[in-house]
Amino acid sequence: MTLAWIPLLTLLGVLIPVPMERFGRRLCTLATATPVVIALILVLSQLPMLLSGGLPHFSLTWIPSLGLDLAFRLDGLSLLFAVLILGIGLLIILYASYYLSAEEASGRFYAYLMLFMTSMIGIVMADNLILLWIFWELTSLSSFLLIGFWSHWTDARKGARMAMTVTGAGGLALLAGLLLLGDMAGSFDMGTVLASGEAIVADDRYPIMLVLVLLGAFTKSAQFPFHFWLPHAMAAPTPVSAYLHSATMVKAGIFLMARLHPAIGDSLLWSWLVTLTGMATFLYGAWFALVKTDLKAILAFSTVSHLGLITALLGIGSPMAIVAALFHILNHAAFKGAMFMNAGIIDHETGTRELDQLGALRHAMPMTALVTMIAAAAMAGVPFLNGFLSKEMFFAETLYTPLLGGLGWLLPMLATLGGILSVAYSLRLVHAVFFKPARRQPPKTPHEPPRLMRAPAMLLVMICIAVGLFPALLATGILELASTAVLESVPELHLAIWHGVNLPLLMSLIAIIAGVATYGLHIHLKRFVRQFAPIDARLVFEGAIQTIASIAHTLTRRLDNGSLQRYMSWLLGGALLLATLGLVQLPRLDGGQATHPVDGILLLGAALMIFGAIGTVVSHRHRLISLLMLSVVGLVVSLTFARFSAPDLALTQLSVEVVTMILLMLALFFLPQKTPRESSAKRNIRDLTLAGSLGMVIASLNYAVLTRDIDSISNFFVENSVPGGGGHNVVNVILVDFRGFDTLGEITVLALAGLAIYKLLNRLRLFMPHSDGEGRVWSPDRYPMILTSVSQTLLPLALLVSAFIFLRGHNQPGGGFIAGLITAVALILIYMARGVEWTQSHLDFPYQPVAIGGVAVATLTGLGSFVFGYPFLTSAFGHFHLPWLGDFELATAMLFDLGVYLAVVGATLMILANLGKVTTPHRPRKDDSRAGTQQPQPSSKEPR
Amino acid sequence: MRPEVALPILIPLMAGATSLLFWRLRLAQRLLAVGGTGALLLTSLWLLHSVSRDGILVMQMGDWPAPFGISLVADLFGAIMVVLTGIIGFAVALYSLATIGRGHEAFGYFPLMHLLLAGVAGAFLTGDIFNLYVWFEVMLVASFALLILGSEKAQMEGAIKYVTLNLLSSVIFLSAVGLLYGMVGTLNMADIAQRLSQVEESGMIDVLAVMFMVAFGIKAAAFPLFFWLPASYHTPPVAVSALFAGLLTKVGVYALFRVFTLIFHQNPGYTHEILVWGAGLTMLSGVLGAAAQYEFRRILSFHIVSQIGYMILGLALFTPLALIGGVFYIMHHIIVKTNLFLVSGFVNRLRGSYDLKKLGGLYRTHPWLAILFLIPALSLAGMPPLSGFFAKFIVIRAGIEAEAYGVTFIALLVGLLTLYSMIKIWAEVFWKSPPEPGENEPELAPVSQREMWQLYAPIVGLALCTVFIGLNGQPIYELASASADQLLDPTRYIDAVMSDSGEVAP
Q1: In this protein, which residues make up the domain named NADH-Ubiquinone oxidoreductase (complex I) chain 5 N-terminal (chain A) (predicted)?
Q2: Domain count, chain B
Q3: What are A122's strand-pairing partners?
Q4: Which pLDDT does position A817 carry in this prediction?
């Protein structure tokens, strides 16, 4: 449980700073630091157990089915990193308290910092690959928030985005790699994975897994060529740079490589990839550190370089190399942390980080100068400081590795070259800032910072000196402990300043001497460098992003150009392609069922239908004709129903046709009578091909289905219609009983459509055209007398008919739907004959409630059966005898049918009334001037 | 009798009808909105509870035995979807109180919302292929009406595209149903599955499968059938966008899952291979479409498309783990995507714009809103430990296990681009300093305390769901796993429907 408290404490630390902020900076800092101190103590309290060979472990299941456990371990490697993270974290908290100006939101800053600390602790302590990855991503996130802390500043935002994108990409590669790794090892448990190194390396998928995992590690640890985000992350406040981008987060990749080394490190591929990448990064970073002029940029590239050094050591992979890598991690954290903090102090006190504006600061800030100089010396690898020791070990390892075979001399040579560059840039930094006179005045007059702000850096430098002087005493223990986690057998460590005169010492000496010389020639170097146009990684990155966006834009435009025709053609094309693919697979189209004999009537019907369909298309620019053609199709369809003994369907289809046609005509009234020619010939061809082929595919499918056997459920309906549904009209019983639920849905659709049209037309105000498409003015006889009187007479009759149709519906063709349509037709007639105003003044009720009332009645009927404990819509019926009228049958289905009736009538009227009301009473002046003979009203329109 | 099977459809249906009857009473409509969706949420939880306790529940409509009547079937997957409908419905109803203007309310916003929910729930619960079509129509018409409520030009344009392309889907769907009936002579999905397994000619089945794939693919906004979505989703009031974003495409996805596990699973080498391709292209085209956008809701709309790809991938890989991933993904996505739209609406309410270039500075002024954006946004991008991470994780792991490396690579890449996209929004809307206000910017009414609550409550609630799914993944995973089991073993569904033959009505 103690183990779980370590990340938990830092996590709690996330919640502390924001509420504590109001109590002042000092208290807030203290409160934030407290859990860190406790966590550090907890980590150290595990030492005895570790030393006695135990492995502190904590595990809690999270999603066991996915192999994800909340499992932590604290072996030597974790301990080393945990101490680093918590220890330097403490110093940073102290430092930041002075660094941030008074008006900055320190609470938020600390909260992000603690979130970051938690995720780092999580990475190093995770005992499960997936858990490790989760924390890995959290470091990306928290570093994103920290880099962008000064969010009003464009550089900060862009740097943050870049860091997030690059490390995010690496993170996803790592995820894939870890998934593969877990798959190979058979578990995500760290112990299991680390123990199955042989099986992993032997696996076929090893190379791809290795590349993926390394991608994750390299992006995080800013290895060449993924290093470019790190210098831009320097837009972060300096405490963040010191903490994340030198001491901890960038070491996460290194940690990962060290952690997984036992599992995946034992192969030639590993050695090659990791060593060469590391060496390349080492040199590349060192070179750019030498030529940059921004203080933090120099440190950033120097960090890149040192990370490369560590990576190269991990690649070499011999036991001593691993130890050297771990040692250098510690050393680098100490001196680079101090360097960054001092860079921040200089920036803070002078207001600039440009070398040009800095100089001769040793007078103004002697203590800072001293501390920086020592740290820089450690960085350069000057004897008696910690950096010297690990760097010498690095030199030694490059000498002894068998990696490059015949080219074995190359590695030590490159290493020495890197060493030379490090000496040169360290020297340059110190000299330019503290000794050389400044070329321009810095924005602020420099002076020493508060003592406590200096303290963290001083402490780190003291560590540098102490370790440099007494390595055996101070470093051996923790290094041995840490390397037990990576190595099976830890080599005997002899950390000492003096090993006698040997090659590594010689290399160190060469590096220092040549380094000083290089700095002497620095001016020439600068001239040389100036010949190359500088490459700003951010511009390149943003450029790449822009390119992706514009390619995406072009692609999307091509697919999605906002044209409905284009969309339709894609959709239909897609459907056509897929259906054709399927159809081709069919061995034969004909299913073998005998076909129905064709007679003259059928042929005529088919011909009419085809004629109607083609006519609709051909005449589509003359809308009225097109509509008439369409009605031919509808009519033939209803005749077809009648021919194949479905009178109910025929009746329904017919009334639907009538109502639709009338409504369409009303709508057409407002539209131009002719459509302009819009499609080019090319497009016509395309559309024709598409439509034609789709038609053929659908026809083939129909043919295929119709010529095959079918064993349908329809017999059940015929048999059960009377005994079960209480009606002889099977179609109606299906509608209101067997499949009443469908009908309920459909009348809802109808009511909804009414509502939609009501809304659509409600505020629409259109001018009426005063003449038809041919320029003929409308007939002056607004409400033809004959029509008025006939419709008046017809209305009661029609209502009677619809009542009749409704009542007999259960047993003979008819029913609520048809009855509703008939009522609607009759009312439409009234509208046409009398105009909207007259009709509405006589039929004065809102239609929405009628339509929706129908739905409600139907639903309630269905719900009624719940009361009796039956499923929804269970019907009941009985026979009654009424005098004069004869035998009657009352079924709950009838009530349901009433709902259908109401919905149909209500919805139709809603559409009709609103279509009628569309016209505005105000007409264009031109029309007014011709009023009288030329201003007749169309019959369905309201009067002026 | 188990009323909870039908109630999730009937409650919104009745709420919609009642709400319409109170056409002029604004208060009654508002109360009904919250009450009705609240009741829906509660019954849906009841349903999920019953289903996970008693197994697949069936109600035969009209007490007609299957396959003759219409069966309502609630298996775990369906029940989960209904619960999500309830959650989203309730959240959006609350949010609507503060964001839907009087003008919209007067034209029946709330009744339409209820009826839309009824359609969605109907689609999730029906066990009948034609009935599914009916509920699709209810959804389509209700959503069309909601789209045009504002009568603005952009809304009309979007709505016309929306309705045309969706009607096309309906036509294909209906033709496919007709052909299917012509082949097997039944409409009950369980019965269809049973009879299809006896059909010898697999070619015909494949053709039909593909037709259904196209019809539902349009609904689900899969490549290359997604155009209607980005053309219309950014136009209506944001509550409507949120409702659509959460639920509508997911009905298409649901239908794909249902049909391609229950009915068309005989030849996965053909059908599911097409789905794999479709999934990959959907992911890519969606995320690339988003890359070029600078309008808050349009970015989010394109991301719906890309996320649909992940869900379809879960189905397409057709392994137990992949299906679990698919179901998990749907659960996560509905909540997160709705929430992102709600946040975009909040931003619009505060700043009067959806244009990223005109926004900025909210990180300083509204830090809580910033965090509430970050939670669903990072979840969408798959950041741990939020719900999206687990969803993506399962799908990707399934991809690796199935050795579908190409499409897995696409899935990872799209995850990265999604992350970039979310960061873009974050940097532009929250981090960046706001641009100087223009000359004739309309003065925005200050947000009242009460509105603040109505806006924050659903956002916070959904964000908590996201975090809860992340931190408490095991039960959710088990739920997804159990429903994937049911999906992979159609006999359980078939047995439940066909054995539960109600008696013939009295």
Answers
A1: 63-110
A2: 1
A3: none
A4: 86
The CB density around residue A22, as the number of other CB atoms within 10 Å, is 9
Average pLDDT over residues A765-772: 65
A872–B contact, CB cutoff 8 A: yes
In a domain, B13, yes or no: no
Q: Quick check: is B344 in a domain?
A: yes
CB contact under 8 A, A65 and B61: no
The verdict on residue B243 lying in a domain is no
CB contact under 8 A, A553 and B393: no
Asked whether residue B60 carries a pLDDT value surpassing 80, the answer given is: yes
Cα→Cα distances A150→A718, B228, B361, Å: 77, 40, 12
CA distance B279 to B271: 12
Who has greater pLDDT, B437 or A96? A96
The two tokens of residue A264 are 């995946």
Q: Which of A134, A708, A872 sits opposite B384 (nearest CB)?
A: A134
* Pairwise CB contact (< 8 Å): A752 & B20: no
Q: Does the beta carbon of B468 lie under 8 angstroms from any beta carbon of chain A? A: no
For residue A20, being part of any structural domain is answered with: no
Say if strands A68-73 and A57-63 run parallel, antiparallel, or are unpaired. Answer: antiparallel
pLDDT band at B484 (very low <50, low <70, confident <90, very high): very high
Q: Do B505 and A862 touch (CB under 8 A)?
A: no
Question: How far is CA A376 from each of CA A89, A292, A379, A387, B460, rounded to the nearest angstrom?
Answer: 21, 16, 5, 9, 50
| Confidence check: pLDDT of A170 > 50 | yes
Residues of B in contact with A725 (CB under 8 A): 505
Residue B350 touches chain A, beta carbons under 8 Å:
no
Domain assignment present for A117 = no
Q: What pLDDT score does A939 carry? A: 39
Q: For residue B465, how far is the Cα from the chain centroid? A: 16
Is the CB of B419 less than 8 angstroms away from the CB of A183?
A: no
ipTM confidence:
0.92
For residue B460, give its domain range: 268-434+450-484
Residue A317 has pLDDT above 80, yes or no: yes
Cβ pair B400, B385 in contact under 8 A: no
Query: What chain A residue is nearest to B61 in terms of C-alpha separation?
Result: A872
Please count the structural domains in chain A: 2
B206 within 8 A of A585, measured Cβ to Cβ: yes
Tell me if chain B has a CB within 8 Å of the CB of A49: no
pLDDT digits (tens, 9 = 90+) for B310-325: 999 999 999 999 999 9
- Whether the bond between A491 and the residue before it is cis, its omega within 30 degrees of 0, is no
Indicate the burial class of A773 (C-beta count within 10 angstroms; 0-12, 13-18, 19 or more): middle
3-class secondary structure per residue, A708-774: CCCCCCHHHHHHHHHHHHCCCCHHHHHHHHHCHHHHHHHHHHHHHHHHHHHHHHHCCCECCCCECCC
Chain A: give the shortest CA distance to residue B141, in Å. 6
Query: Could you list the residue range(s) of the whole structural domain that residue A482 is in?
Result: 267-526
Tokens of A686: 């395309």
- Say yes or no: A582 contacts chain B, CB-CB below 8 A: yes
Residue B392 lies in a domain: yes
Contact B383 A846 (CB under 8 A): no
Global pTM reads 0.91
Q: Which residues of A touch B115 (CB under 8 A)?
A: 748, 752
Q: Is A529 on the interface with B (CB under 8 A)?
A: no
Whether A859 sits inside 8 A of B206 (CB atoms) is no
Is A615 within the bounds of a domain? no
User: With an 8 Å Cβ cutoff, is A473 touching chain B?
Assistant: no
Nearest CB among B149, B227, B413 relative to A759 is that of B149
d(CA A448, CA A456): 14
Q: Is residue A869 part of a domain?
A: yes
Could you report the per-residue pLDDT of A650-701, keeping only the tens digit for each?
888 888 888 888 888 878 877 777 777 777 888 889 889 999 999 998 898 8
Mean pLDDT of A905-909: 86
Task: Kindly determine whether residue A856 and residue B17, on different chains, have CB atoms separated by under 8 Å.
Answer: yes
* % of chain B exceeding 90 in pLDDT: 67
